[in-house]
Amino acid sequence: MGKVLMKGNEVIAEAAVHVGCKYFFGYPITPQSELVAYMARRLPEVGGIFLQAESEIAAINMVYGAASTGVRVMTSSSSPGFSLKQEGISYLVGAELPAVICNIVRGGPGLGNIQPAQSDYFQVTKGGGHGDYNIPVLAPASLQEIVELTEAAFDIADRYRTPVILMGDGMLGQMMEPVEFKERSEQEKTEKAWATTGTRGDGGPRIITSLELDAEGLEKRNWSLQQKFALIKENEVRYESYQTEDADYIMVAFGTVARITMNAINKARKNGIKVGLIRPISLWPFPEKPFIETRDQVKAYISVEMSAGQMIEDVRLAVNGHAPVDFYGRTGGVVPTQEEIYEKIITIAGGVSV
Amino acid sequence: MLEEIIIAGFGGQGVMSMGQLLAYAGMLEGKGVSWLPSYGPEQRGGTANCAVVISDEPVGSPLVTMPSTAIVLNNPSFDKFEPKVRPGGLLIINSSLVVRNSDRKDLKIIELTATDVANDLGNARVANMILLGAFLEQTKIVTEDSVIESLKKVLSEDKHHLLDINKQALKKGASLVKVAIS
Amino acid sequence: MTMKTVFKKTSGLTDKPTHYCPGCTHGIIHRMVAEVLEEMDILEDTIGVASVGCSVLSYEYFNCDMTQAAHGRAPAVATGVKRVLPNRFVFTYQGDGDLASIGISEVIHAAARGENITVIFVNNAIYGMTGGQMAPTTLIGQKTATTPFGRDASLQGSPIKVCEMIATLDGAAYIERVSSHDVPHIQKAKKAIRKAFKTQKKGLGFSMVEVLSTCPTNWGLDPAESLEWVKDSMVPVYPLGVYKNKEGGEN
Predict the structure, then answer these.
(1) Does B25 lie at the interface with A, CB-CB under 8 angstroms?
(2) How far apart are CA C174 and CA C166, in angstroms?
(3) In this predicted model, what pLDDT tens digit does every residue of C7-55 receive, in sequence order?
(4) Residue A337 maps to which CATH number?
């Protein structure tokens, strides 16, 4: 299959189908509605099930039910709807069920608007629901990368028995780019002996639950979850470094903002400013290595976000006081332009504020 | 080569599909392309628009704030994007509907009475293709053949009878530019 | 001489002693469900969904695959399971706080979709696990921790009659309210539960059995008084009977 021109939301859906997801439970919300509509048309073609739930709360719990049977399952939403799913996501973590949840972020808080934003960063990377947990979060910057990361999301979910979040913004969901769905060389198959599918022929009853009334029992369970998170931190960090080797200044941006920032960087380079980019692809686990490798050489880092400043906290933790960290952001659905970001680079390169 | 294009007009004038055709044609020619639509409240006030980037390299930002070319199909779109075209850029105006005149001396400006010409061809809806033909003739960014090839893919089978009129409109737009330049 | 087996515990329940209070009829209702699953020989093909409330640990008592759901969400979880495994039997086991309050949306929509699942709805007119607060099914005048002066319709509204409401939905195939307050009613209740699972077996759509139940601890009554209270106070407000029988015929 050659390249096709598709919308980001549709690419997410097709990539999920491509990697064997046959079950989707969702609820319409702009700007991700194309994803839901695509699944409604596409899943019956592959013998799967699409179901429009009565609410995002019901949708995530249908995902919980389907995941408990061991199949690949997905839901998607945008910020306000994603908030509603938090209860279910916490239960998925607690019951250790694999699923992929897509959040095409829009402006908040509250009803906000439907324009692109990254202001759910805290929510996706710091837990989001109740309890001690983290969830792997993948943030593609291009439509081809959506294909790769959607596939990776399902693999990671199965491998670690965890929900995985795929995070984009309204721009990524709405835009079109050429994509190619390549045959996967090796399909990862995970044995799911824990699934509740009825006991006939497979031994005694199994239980899917997140309840553990005994405090020490729950603590033990939580430590084992933490061990899993440590393993994910060890194995599933993804990032891209762009022109950081000789950089005096390093921009930090993810998703579509990284692409806009890259244009600004190219312009600055032409004007003799040595500036590079670290693009976290996994937002959790956050890539610390590229910061540790550069933090004693660079004059400053600049976190560029479509929020009032959320990822900057992780940047500061990774830089750990070795260099100043500055910020440029737009919020409320306003997308920072390459011209604004370029201006910021010029300002910082002229005199660093902390 | 890096062309950053904004196409803007009323909903229903075919600005989104113009952009998709361009992106599709660029893809067929192996170029880096992206297409980004305005959506939501941005579309109110009469400017549905899309940004198309066509490049020899993979596309960086899909967001276009200072286009190298703006194709405007109505007054609100002219008002919004004429000031934003970068110096030395191209502004293509559907002067059947746009009554404003640009004072900018740093742009190449092509005015075509695209809606009238389309009516003469027998289908007002192909005004967009006349403007697209003009743009292609002026910039040679993708070939007319690639656009026609894309049309075949973008139009559903039941609309293939419209291929001819679209082709005619493309050629007409191109010929009008040749006249305008000479 | 060999002993004749006159009674044997159902294989549908595990050996784990339940945590239910003396005089609570959860145990009886568990047993009826388990016996039906065993008698229909579908225990191994069944996935149960436990809810939140006193019956949260029902997954430790039913001897089949079990999934525990968030508060009120059991019908959504059951939908997810059933849509993937349409040939398995899926049931939820929910109390009145779980089903009629926080989960009313999920149960209504599961019924409206005609989800081919069975809901066992245990109504004892009070929140048990959290310590005796008002439920949507609490009777007018009934004292609870959050209606210390008795439920007042002008302040707290009136009891929700779930069977009557669900029966109006086209997707509902079998809806019956039964009681657990004496042996004849318990026998009737078991028949209703069997009918509900048969409805699922035939793929007719959503089935629900509401079982009126006791809560001696939070009602402040002894077990015998509690059974009387179900009969005298609850049954008049929640009339027993079949509210929907798409297929028709006796259960």
Answers:
(1) no
(2) 10
(3) 899 999 999 999 999 999 999 999 999 999 999 999 999 999 999 999 9
(4) 3.40.50.920
Asked if A177 lies within 8 A of B37 by C-beta distance, the reply is no
Q: What is the pLDDT of residue B43?
A: 55
Angle, in degrees to the nearest 10, between helices B127-139 and B15-28 = 40
Domain boundaries, position C170: 26-245
- Has residue C124 been placed in a domain? yes
B36 with A171: Cβ contact below 8 A: yes
3-class secondary structure per residue, chain B: CEEEEEEEECCCCCHHHHHHHHHHHHHHCCCEEEEEECCHHHHHHHCEEEEEEEECCCCCCCCCCCCCEEEECCHHHHHHHHHHCCCCCEEEEECCCCCCCCCCCCCEEEEECHHHHHHHHCCHHHHHHHHHHHHHHHHCCCCHHHHHHHHHHHCCHHHHHHHHHHHHHHHHHHHHHHHHHC
Q: Which CATH number covers residue C81? A: 3.40.50.970
A257 and A164 share one domain: no
Residues of C with CB under 8 A from a CB of A: 14, 43-47, 49-50, 56-57, 59-60, 62-70, 73, 76-85, 88-89, 105-106, 108-109
Check whether B55 has a pLDDT greater than 50: yes
Count of the separate structural domains present in chain B: 1
C67 within some domain: yes
How many beta-carbon contacts under 8 Å exist across A and C? 134
ipTM exceeding 0.90, yes/no: yes
> In this complex, which of A23, A58, A95 lies closest to C106 when CB atoms are compared?
A58
Q: What is the CATH number of the domain that holds A101?
A: 3.40.50.970
Q: Do C80 and A53 touch (CB under 8 A)?
A: no
Would you call A62 and C88 a contact, using CB atoms and an 8 Å cutoff? no
> Which residues span the domain enclosing A291?
240-350
- In this structure, are A203 and A137 located in the same domain? yes
Is residue A68 domain-shared with residue A182, that is, in the same domain?
yes
Please report which confidence band the pLDDT of residue A1 belongs to, taking 50, 70 and 90 as the band edges: low
The Cα–Cα gap between B98 and B77 comes to: 9
Q: Which structural domain range is residue B164 located in?
A: 2-181
Residues 106-145 of A with CB under 8 A from C: none
B164: CATH: 3.40.920.10
Domain count, chain C: 1
